[in-house]
Write a structure and sequence with these properties.
alpha+beta; 10-stranded mixed β-sheet; two-stranded antiparallel ribbon; 14 helices; globular; EC 3.1.3.62; His_PPase_superfam; EC 3.1.3.80; bisphosphoglycerate 3-phosphatase activity
Length: 440
């Protein structure tokens, strides 16, 4: 069968490593003091010598851990002794908070080049406004993500590219100006109900107790210290994927899974299936996808072949929710941690740094003329009603059409006033749409 790729839709979480300053003070005792009166310290586990440490940290997961690789890759341990004296990383400072790191910039360039390799007849085209559309939200980190991406795509010709930027973006960052969502979801303490309940479970209490025992404390500190250590662990591991993180050494694999689930509970109710409003709020990029595909199928000569949008990780989670992807039959709650071990809603896989959702529209010479295929972080998505990820556009369009036609943001104004939105994640997202003439 001869296929032509007609249009490609990509939604990418394009900020692999955002530098975030966290003020953490943890005193680690090197004495042999035990927690309480127990003669047993902790699980016999050493993170430093573990050749396969746990690397899934929710939205702070490095993209190199989850993306679809064409060949197997293995991380070889450095086999160096730990330094005798720990030193502060001088690159971590308040003036660089929220900046892209150098490793993040390189990851974006490599991601652009991998797409270019897969779709050569499209992404090797020189830049023109008739072929490419770029847009990013009005933040430094989305601009830097855009800049790194186009440098990976166009190399020394990157200066020719132009991008649109909006102060209030109804497509890429609608949640920021949705008063109803801010009041009823983002600023609503009930959004964290399951998360707070999970912190009261025996699994979480055992984690807190065990970590402090592992570090040599005779007493339990505030569990916020655990959260700070976990943040430093996952950020540091995202910055330096190939080296062990000192902060991660405080946790066992099982404890990291517990902390990952706790983080998933937050996002599940804030930007996922835990609140019905989230699927409504995620419909603008879905509507844009549907309308661009329809215009392409109907033969529009004014549609750009490539449209790339740079936004924030909340958008990718809201978009996945609006699409109905990765929805669990049973909601995530505080009391079903063990039964949700194989859950679909896992932010480590959905929205790590540099996450991307891709939809490719194919024009075929046999059977259904137009077909579409979805990818999540370069892995094929088993979309409902499709065969091995490949879907009839007629089948998919029926589902998307209803969501697109009912995409009305007027509900956002049904609140007293608009508050400043809290930072949901420092990850970034890219939404791309490509029209190609490729022979497979």
């Amino acid at each position: 069968m001869l296929w032509k790729i007609k249009q490609l839709f990509i939604n990418q979480n394009m900020a692999p490593n955002i530098l975030v300053f966290l003020s953490v003070m943890v005193v680690i005792s090197i004495s042999s003091a035990q927690y309480g009166q127990s003669n047993e310290c902790c699980e016999n586990y050493c993170y430093r010598i573990d050749e396969q440490p746990y690397l899934y940290f929710g939205t702070k997961t490095s993209y190199q851990i989850v993306y679809g690789k064409k060949s197997n890759q293995h991380i070889v341990p450095s086999l160096r002794l730990c330094p005798i004296r720990w030193r502060w990383n001088e690159s971590i400072s308040l003036d660089r908070a929220n900046d892209l790191t150098s490793s993040g910039i390189q990851e974006l360039k490599f991601l652009a080049r991998r797409y270019q390799t897969r779709f050569r007849e499209l992404l090797t085209l020189p830049y023109s406004e008739q072929t490419y559309k770029f847009q990013y939200t009005n933040t430094d980190r989305t601009h830097d993500s855009y800049q790194a991406y186009i440098e990976g795509l166009f190399n020394e010709k990157a200066y020719e590219a132009h991008a649109d930027v909006l102060n209030e973006d109804p497509l890429l960052q609608k949640y920021k100006n949705c008063a109803k969502w801010q009041e009823e979801v983002d600023d609503n303490p009930e959004t964290l109900t399951e998360y707070n309940k999970f912190k009261e479970t025996q699994e979480y209490k055992d984690l807190v107790r065990s970590v402090f025992r592992r570090l040599g404390f005779k007493y339990t500190l505030n569990d916020s210290v655990i959260e700070d250590m976990y943040d430093m662990c996952r950020y540091e591991k995202a910055w330096y994927v190939m080296r062990p993180s000192t902060w991660c050494a405080a946790f066992t694999k099982q404890q990291l899974k517990v902390l990952e689930y706790a983080a998933d509970l937050i996002d599940y109710y804030r930007t996922g299936y835990g609140n019905e409003m989230n699927s409504q709020l995620g419909c603008p990029p879905l509507k844009d996808l549907y309308e661009r595909f329809e215009r392409t199928i109907n033969g529009s000569s004014f549609e750009q072949k490539v449209a790339v949008y740079f936004t924030h990780s909340a958008t990718i989670q809201l978009f996945v929710t609006a699409m109905g992807l990765l929805k669990d039959y049973t909601p995530l709650t505080a009391d079903n941690y063990y039964t949700q071990a194989r859950r679909q809603w896992r932010t480590s896989s959905i929205a790590p740094f540099s996450a991307n959702v891709v939809a490719v529209l194919y024009e075929c010479d046999q059977g259904d003329k137009h077909r579409v295929m979805f990818f999540l972080n370069e892995n094929p998505v088993d979309y409902p009603g499709c065969q091995v990820g490949l879907c009839s556009w007629q089948t998919v369009s029926e589902k998307l059409r209803n969501a697109a036609q009912s995409c009305n943001m007027e509900f956002c104004e049904n609140a007293a006033h608009i508050k400043s939105v809290s930072v949901i994640s420092f990850s970034l997202t890219v939404l791309s749409i490509l029209v190609v003439k490729l022979i497979l």
